[in-house]
Amino acid sequence: KFSDLTETSFMLSWNKPKGNRDSLFILIFFFLPGESHSVTVGIEHTTFTLSKLSPGTSYIVTVYTTHGRVQSDPNTSFLTTVPAPPTLFQATEVSDTKALLKWTPSLGKIDRFVISYESSKSKQWEFSRVKNLKQKQIHLSRMMYVLLQLQMMSVFSGKLRFPFPTECSQELLNGALQSGEVDVYPQGREGQAVRVYCDMESDGGGWTVFQRRMNGKTDFYRTWSEYNTGFGNISEEFWLGNRLLHNLTSIGPVSLRVDMRSGNDTAYAHYANFFIDSEERNYTLTISGYTGTAGDSMRYHNNRPFSTRDKDPDPLGIHCSRAYMGGWWYKNCYKTNLNGLYGINSNNQGIVWIDWKGKDSSIPFTEMKFRPSRFSPATHG
């Protein structure tokens, strides 16, 4: 029988033969044609270790006894050595929810890789059918994790620079390079996770997106309560929520970026200073320091409170939210209205940035996002 099977060796054992035998003769045939080896073992032995074999290779093992020139019937069996583990294994692009695993496949015949991983407080998961790949992206449930590699069960561990990121720039510094949904912790370790969308591409990345218009599927003519808590699908159209927006812009000085697209035309507005006040102060907007290609339409709305269809904290005439059917920092009434009616190109009721496309051209795509002012795209890596 076979035991102690490794990548390059195994132990063969047998019962001592009865009768008068001169020696025990073991023939080992490689699975590949033309490569066969043999070894003679004395009659006093009942075990023998075959070594210097190849990982992941199939062998035919034939054992028989001899007495002079007389041989017993052969006893033949098949066995395959343990595959060698892949080399240069590494976890890259690590975030709170995923990591990119890369490795160099080992030599020898391999039909699949098995990747198992676990967190410190939950059960183990396993990918059992990873074929012909040198990398695989997996999702993790915790910031601290252990990766168990194949049959060798070699342990790899990793720590994030920001285990509880407060916003997307920290997620970028954790190694997340692709835009998408992530969990952040505005209140730190003790607070609840909040799902947000990170833009990791525009101007160096690290932007936390809080508004997007793209297809008209989401109604933005909402109540104060709805704008307070947020609504929509963060991978499509959504408003993140004024309460959360206040919390996130209160962590430290932040900048605002607005990206817009209409057909083949694109424009952006960058504001070096951006802050949303508390609900007690009606989520008043503070904004300054414009640069960009869209024109400085937001300056008109500086120091204005947020208003919705059911609450206008500081009316200056008409109820702007009702007149233009959105929630915004209206004045009397606007120079930009990115939460207006989708696709409406008349009566000033569309998605408007006057300094770019005028008042009667509804912009098909808008995205509002922020990141810490101290963040430097040139040095974040």
Automatic annotation (TrEMBL):
Subcellular location: Secreted, Extracellular space, Extracellular matrix
Domain Fibronectin type-III intervals: 1-85
Any one of the GO CC terms: extracellular space
rRNA-binding listed as a keyword: no
Entry keyword set: Disulfide bond, EGF-like domain, Extracellular matrix, Repeat, Secreted, Signal
Family annotation (PROSITE patterns): FIBRINOGEN_C_2, FN3
Listed InterPro entries: ECM_Regulatory_Proteins (IPR050991), Fibrinogen-like_C (IPR036056), Fibrinogen_a/b/g_C_1 (IPR014716), Fibrinogen_a/b/g_C_dom (IPR002181), FN3_dom (IPR003961), FN3_sf (IPR036116), Ig-like_fold (IPR013783)
Pfam families recorded: Fibrinogen_C, fn3
A biological process term (GO) from this entry: neuron projection development
Domain Fibrinogen C-terminal intervals: 159-374
Keyword Disulfide bond: yes
UniProt-recorded name of the protein: Fibrinogen C-terminal domain-containing protein
